[in-house]
Amino acid sequence: MLTGHPDENTTLERFQRSRRVLQNACSSCAVPLFPTNPTQSTMKMHRLLTTTASLAGFLAVVLSPAVLVPAEESPSPKTAASNPQIEQNALDQLKRMSATLGAANAFTFRTSSTVEVPAKTGQFITLFATSEIALERPNKLRARVTGEVPNFDFTYDGGTIGAYAPNNNVYSVSKAPGTIDAMLPFIEKETGIHFAAAYVLFSDPYAVLSQGLTSAVVVGSDTVQGAPCEHLAFRGPGVNWEIWIESGERALPRRLAITYTGETNFPRSLVEFSQWNLHPWLSDGDFDFKKPAGAKEIAFLPELKAKARSVQ
């Protein structure tokens, strides 16, 4: 189920502050996100990463905390038989996409995304970002985020997550659960990090996306980036969302649009997927976190560190 929107406390001022921090290569500068006071050694990089990832178009539509649920723990989705506003064909198209992604042992793709965030004036500002994603099932993930948002790299090797903010030359590492399905909700719950395309990374995207649906319809056919697609529309509590899925055998997602109906001004987010490769050449080393030369380590969160100690 898609749900939630960035807290309205995440104002344009906060985004601008984050950008200034990352654009300043001087690690000694005293800024709120990266304090230089030695007593504040557990600098909260999670604040930066939550802001960054929620804009990047990278792994899950911007979400409220802890809404990602591993497929095996999700309740059974509704069907057209139990709700006349849910068209079975729309669910079937979603299942086709899920089958394509779930069957792929590895894949890479790029995203271009926009998200509307509230400024203190009440106006919603549109920010743009791009990302590059590489995944290898069941437990390897890599992402690079660039654009109008603070840039960062993220890696997961099946036991450790690492994030690096290159413009400020700081990084964080922590232990994490042993599969992508378990890692995604873990880091969201413990750190608030949101990935704008996370649903397509689960082993069974359908089981996650179909939760809580109140309507599902086939809008019609369209072409996205030269690929014939089926345009589908869904509704759930507090959110309307649409997805464009390739009509061919690959059934890959090409576009995802979300409107947050439970928020003031109905802010929107848009993710466009491109350059899909379902047979990439990847090595285990591609997902290892490599400490950049001269980079300074900061903690994600003390709570995450404590929680990670219990991860097997």
Describe the structure.
- This protein has a twelve-stranded mixed β-sheet, covered by helices on one side.
- 45% of the residues are buried.
- It has a single domain, classed as outer membrane lipoprotein receptor (LolB), chain A (Clam).
- The chain has 312 residues and is of the alpha+beta class.
- It contains six helices and twelve strands.
- Helices cover 20% and strands 31% of the residues.
- The chain has helices at 12-23, 45-55, 88-103, 180-191, 205-209, 302-308; strands spanning 106-118, 124-136, 140-147, 152-156, 160-165, 170-175, 215-224, 227-236, 239-246, 253-259, 268-277, 296-297.
- Residues 8-77 have low confidence and may be disordered.
Keywords:
312 residues; alpha+beta; outer membrane lipoprotein receptor (LolB), chain A; twelve-stranded mixed β-sheet; 12 strands; 20% helix
- Count every beta strand, where a strand is a DSSP E run of 2 or more residues: 12
The rounded distance between the terminal residues' Cα atoms is 28 Å
Give helix and strand order, one letter per element, not per position: HHHEEEEEEHHEEEEEEH
User: Percent helix among the residues?
Assistant: 10-25%
Beta-strand residue fraction? 25-35%
In the CATH hierarchy, what is the architecture at level 2?
Clam
Offer a quick outline of the entry.
By secondary structure, the chain is of the alpha+beta class. The chain is about 20% helix and about 30% strand. It has one domain (about 10-305): outer membrane lipoprotein receptor (LolB), chain A (Clam).
What does the secondary structure layout of this molecule look like, with pairings?
Elements: H1 12-23, H2 45-55, H3 88-103, E1 106-118, E2 124-136, E3 140-147, E4 152-156, E5 160-165, E6 170-175, H4 180-191, H5 205-209, E7 215-224, E8 227-236, E9 239-246, E10 253-259, E11 268-277, E12 296-297, H6 302-308
Parallel strand pairs: 6-12
Antiparallel strand pairs: 1-2, 1-11, 2-3, 3-4, 4-5, 5-6, 7-8, 8-9, 9-10, 10-11
